[in-house]
Amino acid sequence: MTEALRSLLARPRVLVTGIAMVVVAVTAMTLIPSLTHSAGAKLLADLDALGSDAWLVEPQPTRDGLPGRLPNGAVARAAGLPGASSALREVTTEVPVRLSAQERSDRGVRVVGVAAWPQAAPLPVVSGTSRPVPGLPFAVLGQRAADELGLTELPATVFAGGRRFVATGVIAGDPLLPELADALVVDAETALALSGATGADRLVIRTAATLDPARIRASVDPLALSALAVGQPEALVAAKQQSTSTLDGLAVYASIAAFGIAGLGIAIMLAAAVRQRTAEIAIRRVHGAPRRAIFGLVAAEGLGLGVLGGALGLAVSAAAMYTVTAVNDWPVEPQYSLFAAAMGAAVLMCQLAAAVPAWLAVRIEPATAFAVE
Amino acid sequence: MSAAPGDALVELADVSVRYRDDTILEDVTRTVRRGDYVTVTGRSGAGKSTLLNVIAGTVFPSSGSVRICGHDLGRSGPRTQAQRYAIGYLFQSAHLVSWMSVAENVQLGMRYQRVAAAERRRRTSEALEAVGLAHRTDHRPTQLSGGERQRAALARSIARDPEVILADEPTGNLDATTGASIIELIESLSAGRCLIVVTHDEALAARGTRQWVVGDRGVREHVMAAS
């Protein structure tokens, strides 16, 4: 190994360029995921602070197979959870919505009833108003529902379950409540009255604090009257997972690309170095060096580049990680297992890169080498 | 190696070397004994270096057998042993490793003989003393003159304590005076061994006790008068 390092020191261009390539590859493999994890953790924390951390509370079906019901006062109690920014009860009916009492065609629009805290503008509108019309059953529409019904003017009259409603506005889409886009949104009590025992009932809570399901269950149903399932909306969980996996995927691709380029570069450099050292290798062969010793000579140089470049790359990566996270006020999320893997990958990559030059060195025949000279 | 004085150190029996359709050497049979000083001459491309490489074991004969100190080079084990222990090889260029010191270059010759480190140092010291480079031990090859480099290469060969010394135009890159001193050094350090020198220099060729002339795929021998 000492001889390999001295041999590399004698060719500073190979040493510096080789180490630089390994440093870039190791840095790409360790720094990018560490920073994406730090940035991702910061992003999720910021989003949670804005109230985007949502929970879904759903009553279990009854023994008769009918949808369960949230206990009375669930919305108000959910609003009392630490960090709660909003709580919204949602009752989904199977009652179709039509433009006239006589119409029989099903436009795919259903009634969804909501009871929200805070009451003021729980569902922002994109057109019209969410203010009730005095003396009339009041409703708002999701955007796709409005399009499906062909409503061009607001307020508009619509019929659901034999009742007449005045739709006053079209609400903005909410990624956590995608079903509202196809719905006529009324208050929860009205929806319960329309659907009877068949309407699905659930509670959507947005919090700015880290909560656990047991705490939410105990707050929403302190007397444990209902069997409640508490979890996070699939859309939110999927979005978090997707963002994490996308960042991880980018890091993996960047690492593979960096290691591939570095490996190719080192292989080419070592092969050129072997060509320059034909006489040295030939003289070793003349003096009885077995082929495996010649292979080992070049492989050891690859190992040297891998170890030196890997160690320097980890140091650079760690320094950059702490600097960038400190400057941006991100949490430090060092991926120690990744650091170990990067070191291993650097050594392995350099060994693989050195294999072809080592094979070329082994093929050098003294007689041919000196004849060429 | 345990060959006795006068024993055959190099034995070529019906050796032929062919490269594709070209026959370089055909049915060459020669024996070199301890104390022999063989000079090899012939026109360029006749096969002088090929002959030397066959003896060194760096070129395999297409047919025939080569024995060094009684070991058949055709068999991998003895061939390796013979190459590691029995042969010292000098070239027109010194071929010293530029990033190693002179002493390390000399030790390189013993590296693959598995000589113990202390013994390597002792032999290196003696060899450098013998070639007059004791004061250049820690110098790099780039700090040496052409003659000194060739002396260092000679020290590298001698330190291996070979039975057979092969030299392929060892003075080809040196001026006449330096070349002559190198030849005298090679000759003096080859005492008790056998020396085979390839040369274009007629005066040098005449210094050997035997002269081989390579040409027409064969090797003709002239026995020289004792000087």
Mass-distribution shape of chain B: globular
Q: What is the count of helical runs of chain B?
A: 7
For the record, the count of structural domains of chain A works out to 2
Low-confidence segments of chain B: none
The N- and C-terminal alpha carbons of chain A lie at a distance of 29 Å
Number of helices of chain A: 11
Descriptive notes:
Chain A is built from 11 helices and 10 strands. Chain A is of the alpha+beta class and 373 residues long. In chain A, a hairpin with a 2-residue loop joins strand 6 and strand 7. Chain B is of the alpha/beta class and 227 residues long. In chain B, helix 4 crosses helix 5 (146-159). The two termini of chain B are 29 Å apart. The model of chain B has no long low-confidence stretch (mean pLDDT 85). Chains A and B meet through helix 1, helix 8 and helix 11 of A and helix 1, helix 2 and helix 3 of B.
List the helices and strands and how they pair.
The complex is a heterodimer of chains A (373) and B (227).
Chain A: H1 2-9, H2 12-49, E1 53-59, H3 74-79, E2 84-98, E3 110-117, E4 125-128, E5 138-141, H4 143-149, E6 156-160, E7 163-171, E8 183-187, H5 188-195, E9 200-207, H6 213-220, E10 228-231, H7 234-276, H8 278-286, H9 291-328, H10 336-362, H11 366-372
Parallel strand pairs in A: 3-8, 5-7
Antiparallel strand pairs in A: 1-9, 1-10, 2-3, 2-6, 2-9, 4-7, 5-8, 6-7
Helix pairs in contact in A: 1-9, 2-7, 2-9, 2-10, 7-10, 8-11, 9-10
Chain B: E1 8-19, E2 22-33, E3 37-41, H1 48-56, E4 63-68, E5 71-72, H2 76-85, E6 87-90, H3 102-111, H4 117-131, H5 146-159, E7 164-168, H6 176-189, E8 194-198, H7 202-205, E9 210-215, E10 218-223
